[in-house]
Design goal:
Blueprint (H helix, E strand, L loop, with lengths): L9 H18 L4 H8 L3 H8 L6 H10 L5 H5 L7 H8 L18
Length: 109
């Protein structure tokens, strides 16, 4: 297996990703048609991905779900952290004093 670096060409990245997906499939002892059935795609699609051809994002998500590796997208594209401004907005102003309004009297039953 190779390494993906910022200077890698797109076809090289696709081939590497395909090889990694194939390794994941084989480690789970899955045949192409079994993964295709799990993922809801055609066996030819799995063959094409593993060979380094481009596929749509929805197809990649289906394949990763079929491999039980959907959570890998969390590391790939983590949710953005709030900016300092957003943190300040969420915090709001701290209370300085209690309000003057008196609570309504409690009713006795």
């Amino acid at each position: 297996m190779g390494t993906i670096v910022p200077t890698s060409r797109t076809p090289d990245v696709l081939r590497e990703l395909g090889a990694r997906l194939k390794t994941l499939r084989l480690r789970q002892n899955l045949r192409v048609k079994d993964l295709a059935a799990r993922a809801g795609v055609g066996a030819r699609t799995i063959d094409r991905v593993e060979a380094g051809h481009s596929v749509g994002t929805d197809t990649l998500v289906r394949i990763m779900r079929g491999l039980g590796r959907l959570q890998a997208f969390e590391a790939l594209i983590p949710p953005p952290e709030p900016s300092p401004y957003e943190i300040e907005q969420m915090r709001g102003k701290p209370r300085q004093r209690a309000s003057r309004r008196t609570p309504p009297p409690e009713r006795l039953s």
